[in-house]
Amino acid sequence: MDYTTITIAAVAGLIIGFLIAKFLEKGKASKTIADAKKDASNILKEAKVEGESIKKNKIFQAKEKFLELKSEHEKVITNKDKKINEAEKRTRDKESQISNELAENKKLSDQLNQKLKEVDHKSEFLDKKKSELEKLHNSQVQQLEVISGLSADDAKGQLMESLKETAKSDAMAYIQSTVEDAKLTAQQEARKIVINTIQRVGTEEAVENCVSVFNIESDDVKGRIIGREGRNIRALESATGVEIIVDDTPEAIILSCFDSIRREVARLSLHKLVTDGRIHPARIEEIVKKTEKQIEQEIVEVGKRTIIDLGIHGLHPELVRAVGRMKYRSSYGQNLLQHSREVAKLCGIMAAELGLNPKLAKRAGLLHDIGKVPNTEAEVETPHAILGMQWAEKFGEKPDVCNAIGAHHDEIEMKNLISPIVQVCDAISGARPGARRQVLDSYIQRLKDLEDVAFGFSGVQKAYAIQAGRELRVIVESEKVSDEKAAQLSFEISQKIQTDMTYPGQVKVTVIRETRAVNVAK
Questions:
Q1: What does the DSSP 8-state code read for residue 378?
Q2: Which residues have CB under 8 Å from 501's CB, separation 6+?
Q3: Contact (CB, 8 A) for 463 and 472
Q4: For residue range 60-84, what is the model confidence (pLDDT) as tens digits?
Q5: CA separation for the pair 303, 283 (Å, rounded)
Q6: SS3 breakdown of the chain: % helix, strand, coil, rounded to 5?
Q7: Alpha-carbon gap, residue 291 to 385, rounded angstroms
Q8: In this structure, what are the phi and psi dihedrals at residue 245, rounded to the nearest 5 degrees?
């Protein structure tokens, strides 16, 4: 066989082998497809059976759910029907009740109309009676006027005067009785509080004059102070506003001025000039200016030290300065700062005894006289109590403190319990023996004014102001003044003194009425 034949035979063999392989694969595939169809048919049957089972279960569950929902729905409907029935029943009851009330109201309305008719009838009857009574009254008044010879107005006036005098006497007797009862119950406790307060405060007698004495080592210094042709002393008087008296008094120079601050500036300036030895007009002006600044600083320090000693906090700087300036002021010879400190301590003690705020009372007591240290000349014309109240209001003090400052001399009405405490403590501090120096003329004038007040009332025969003006004894004429009138006269005189006069402490008014019957046996 040649090569070509072999090749063809090989190729033919390969083709036959390929065809046989394809045939075998096709048989296997057919078998596989048949098996798959059989498996699919089985799966479909099983799925169908399972689906029917699931369907039956779901239908059964749905029926149970439906029955359950139906049962609940029936319950809800039943409850609603029950509520509707109850509401209908309540409505029927209300309608029945309203019908009954309407029937009753109609009945009452008929009764009311009947009553109104009766009232109208009675009103007409009363109007007729009233007009008849007025006619009868007028006729009787006319008859009485003819019989008495007086008109109705004149008779009414006489009756009113008679009743007024009787009521006035009765009122005075009642007032006197009430005052006496109040004194019996309150005087002992008030005296106890005042005495305890005074005993717990250490007082000082601080009397200042209008002159200061500057001591020098020798009389040779006087010539240096006067200077050539008096230029030094003139410059010193011009710079300080103080009158400097250089006389024959050994080793002393007198400084005279009503302003204590100016006197102190002049005294310190003289001390510095004499110590330094250089005394001439330019040096005098320089020293006086430095001394004024030193005094201003000292005023502030004194104010701060005072409020610290009294335990007062939060005071405005201007009020602190005013407190410090009180050191260089006096009232009736009594140092104003010492007086204010004393009043503050008394107020604190008395407020504590009465269960009030002692710190607030101290504050009001310290500031009650700040109006006596005005900053400008325009403020001098305002009463010091009103001026002090205005300052306190301006610098943020509490209304109770402002009222106590303004009312301590009764310029305004007292509105709290601190105000009378400040007034009483101010009187205690100013009225104690030795606290103030009174000028003889003003003292005599005050006694004379007291007596003149008594002589201003009818029936007064004699009047005597005794016990340094603390008591006024009035002797009345027994023929003109009865015993009841004497009590009334005593009250009226005390009220007149209280409203018209200014005085420290209190004034006791005693009215004396004496009746004598004298016969001679022979």
A1: G
A2: 446, 449, 450, 453
A3: yes
A4: 888 888 888 888 888 889 888 888 9
A5: 30
A6: 70, 5, 20
A7: 31
A8: -105, 115
In 155-185, which positions are buried (b, 16+ CB within 10 angstroms) versus exposed (e)?
Answer: eeeeeeeeeeeeeeeeebeeeeeeeeeeeee
* Confidence category of residue 6, pLDDT binned at 50, 70, 90: low
The token pair that represents 504 in the structure block: 């420290």
What are the two backbone dihedrals, phi and then psi, of residue 400, each rounded to the nearest 5 degrees? Answer: -65, -40
Tell me which DSSP letter residue 207 carries.
B
**Residue 207: strand pairing partners:** 334
DSSP assignment of 454-482 equals HHTSTTEEEEEEETTTTEEEEEE-TTT--
For 481, phi then psi, to 5°, come to: -120, 120
233: amino acid identity, one letter: I
Distance between first and last Cα of the chain: 224
Please, are residues 486 and 459 in contact by the beta-carbon 8 Å criterion? no
The conformation of residue 258, written as its DSSP 8-state character, comes to S
Which one-letter amino acid corresponds to residue 402?
Answer: C
Q: What is the pLDDT of residue 191?
A: 66
Phi-psi sector, 462: left (phi>0), alpha (psi -120 to 50), beta: beta
pTM for the whole thing? 0.48
**How far apart are the C-alpha atoms of 443 and 445, rounded to whole Å?**
5
Q: Cα–Cα distance between 374 and 396 in angstroms, integer?
A: 18
How far is the C-alpha of 208 from the C-alpha of 256, rounded, in Å? 12
- In sequence order, what are the residues at sequence separation of 6 or more whose Cβ sits closer than 8 angstroms to the Cβ of residue 134? none
**Angle (nearest 5°) at CA 335 between 217 and 472:** 130
- The two tokens of residue 460 are 């007064």
